Amino acid sequence: MKNPIRIIWLILGFAAIGIGTVGVVLPVLPTTPFLLLASFCLAKGSERFHTWFTQTKLYKTHLDDFVKTRSMTLRSKFTILLPASAMLILAFIMMPNWYGRGFIIFLIIFKYVYFFTRIKTIAA
Question: Across the chain, how many H-helices and E-strands are there?
Fold first, then answer.
């Protein structure tokens, strides 16, 4: 019998590929985080599927440069940050608890600080 944990990693990896692929078409859904998640999950689940994924056009277009250089264009950063911020702002509005709202504000600030201090910005 196959390792059920590896099967779960593979299922999560392929689900993330699916969501990331939809994100290529829908500007509201960020592609890069889901493809990073897919790469991580497939690496945990199967070396063969991870190797396959890193050879796809989807990976090469959206992740290859980031993985190699740990850098992104300013446009890429905002393409990821703005939709995520919009979702967090909606959660903030709907959150009745002030502690929850404080945590959401912390998340919004943290992700911008992380993206602009830990990930190098390169020219397009």
Answer: 7, 2
